[in-house]
């Protein structure tokens, strides 16, 4: 069915990650998502630790709830994430043989795509494959140790087999700023993408998570050079987890909100000048419910102001920035 995820007026659809624990409990949360979003993604409901608590036990509950919500409100969906090094159940973290890794990856991808493929237009097939400094290159995850760098291609081929028409995405964070860590990460990511293209790996798009922050400026030249290479390789780009860490931003809420909006504008303007993303999603929609405080609580103990709506679901300048670039 045609969902609202097509975007309008040549602008990409806007969407947000949804917290599966809040969705069933808070009507204003559901109303804000239905009102502002064209598509949604589960913040944690489609991760292995949620879906496969044991090798022979599956828990589709939270993901099913979001799929039903999306269907009721004619929303498109992203699937996050078919393969990641994090949020794995203990039995999966303990995988060591190539045969077992191969089998479990293919089983999970086939089973999850079979259940949700009709609703999900775009999948994060592999999430966060590249290390952060001081490590460099491919992340030494359980999958890398069991299968080598080829695990990425294996996952994409399994996903293409299960979802022939979906947008298959390689999703990463930390590719957009001027610090050395981001420069090194762009290098490692570029090498992986070139290797995947050389193998004919069925990657359709690059997912820029875009977890921005007040203390790390956007590297316009560095990011645009990377984006131009993706475009030359025939790859699309999608913005998957946009939010702005305001931990280091000073001052009264209205100043923080202006700085957050400015950072978001700077990033989106940098990307759109090279390529129109297929979608722009924020990682949550309201400051009332964001992952941010867990790792980036503000020193002044004020609530983080990192998302388009404040804690009372009132739109902030960040939402105006999204309306400028997207079909909101
Ligand atoms: O579901 C269990 C619940 O049953 C249990 O009672 C509770 C007790 O702690 O934990 C719940 O699981 C939590 C899960 O979120 C669902 O709420 C996990 O502990 C917690 O670690 C998990 O955090 C999520 C994190 O990814 C790890 O999966 C965050 O909400 C989520 O915002 C964050 O999102 C990631 C993206 O997937 C990838 N990119 C970075 C982004 C931010 O870290």
UniProtKB/TrEMBL annotation:
Keywords: Carbohydrate metabolism, Glycosidase, Hydrolase, Polysaccharide degradation, Signal, Xylan degradation. GO terms for biological process: xylan catabolic process. One of its GO terms (molecular function) is endo-1,4-beta-xylanase activity. InterPro entries: GH, GH10, GH10_dom, TAT_signal. Residues 8-325 form the GH10 domain. Coiled coil: none annotated. It catalyses: Endohydrolysis of (1->4)-beta-D-xylosidic linkages in xylans. It comes from the Bacteria. Its EC number is 3.2.1.8. Belongs to the glycosyl hydrolase 10 (cellulase F) family. This is Beta-xylanase.
């Amino acid at each position: 069915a045609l969902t609202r995820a097509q975007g309008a007026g040549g602008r990409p659809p806007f969407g947000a990650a949804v917290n599966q624990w809040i969705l069933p409990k808070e009507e204003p949360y559901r109303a804000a998502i239905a009102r502002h979003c064209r598509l949604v993604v589960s913040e944690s409901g489609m991760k292995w630790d949620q879906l496969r608590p044991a090798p022979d036990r599956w828990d589709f509950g939270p993901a099913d709830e979001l799929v039903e919500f999306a269907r009721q409100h004619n929303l498109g969906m992203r699937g996050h994430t078919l393969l990641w090094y994090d949020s794995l159940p203990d039995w999966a973290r303990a995988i060591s043989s190539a045969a077992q890794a191969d089998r479990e990856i293919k089983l999970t991808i086939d089973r999850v795509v079979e259940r949700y493929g009709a609703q999900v237009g775009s999948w994060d097939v592999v999430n966060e494959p590249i290390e952060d400094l001081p490590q460099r290159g491919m992340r030494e995850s359980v999958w890398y140790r069991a299968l080598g760098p080829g695990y990425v291609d294996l996952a994409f081929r399994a996903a293409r087999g299960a979802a022939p028409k979906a947008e298959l995405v390689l999703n990463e964070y930390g590719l957009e700023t001027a610090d050395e860590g981001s420069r090194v990460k762009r290098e490692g990511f570029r090498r992986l993408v070139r290797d995947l293209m050389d193998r004919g790996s069925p990657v359709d798009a690059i997912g820029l998570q875009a977890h921005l922050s007040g203390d790390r400026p956007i590297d316009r030249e560095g990011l645009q050079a990377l984006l131009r290479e993706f475009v030359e390789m025939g790859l699309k780009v999608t913005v998957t987890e946009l939010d702005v860490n305001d931990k280091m931003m000073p001052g009264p809420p209205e100043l923080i909100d202006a700085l957050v909006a400015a950072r978001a504008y700077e990033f989106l303007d940098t990307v759109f000048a090279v390529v129109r993303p297929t979608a722009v999603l924020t990682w949550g929609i309201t400051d009332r419910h964001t992952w941010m405080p867990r790792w980036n609580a503000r020193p002044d103990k004020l609530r983080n102001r990192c998302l388009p709506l404040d804690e009372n679901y009132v739109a902030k300048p960040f939402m105006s920035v999204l309306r400028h670039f997207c079909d909101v």
